[in-house]
Amino acid sequence: QVQLQESGPGLVKPSETLSLTCTVSGGSISRYYWSWIRQSAGKGLEWIGRIYTSGNTNYNPSLKSRVSMSVDTSKNQFSLKLSSVTAADTAVYYCARDNWAARPGYFYYYMDVWGNGTTVTVSS
Amino acid sequence: DIQMTQSPSSLSASVGDRVTITCQASHDIKNYLNWYQQKPGKAPKVLIHEASNLQTGVPSRFSGSGSGTDFTFTISSLQPEDVATYYCQQYDNFPSPLTFGGGTTVEIK
User: Which residues of B fall within a CB distance of 8 Å from A114?
Assistant: First the structure.
């Protein structure tokens, strides 16, 4: 059974870079998209972006100038970097596996495995 | 970006009641819509994908319908373990950004 685990600093100073890693266990990282999603306290879900195992990425336009993602297939890990953070970036950050398939006239895409989430606080 | 509007933002119902949540997309998204359940302190869990397909292992009291811009999520008989926040999420025009609705918090009356 595939499991995801987020790791990284729980406290980041304003203007610095938030760095998180998601480790995939119980299955291969290959041939899937992998997403990062965040949730501020008491708020809804915000999709940050996705990465394919080839390294192709797509980002939320609202964060695109500050976000970068990478993947290390040898370690079954993918990572998130968010630069120039402010208090508004304080949130629970989740990684997730994007389950997808596309055929003529048929396309599904949903996040079927999630990490437990890690809380990141931006504060001096 | 495609905006997703969910309603109501919260509701309170009795055990055994039928509960309905709606989600409206700002553009036609065909049936490219998923529904997630998030219990307090937990990660979201997919219940419905492609608007109406029940994820494996999810109880049959959950269902979804709709296409185009208007979608409905239903719990046919509310159970105490269904207390959670429910989110819709669209994935039209891949690889465009994914967007979530604002969520609906379901409580027991």
Answer: 43-45
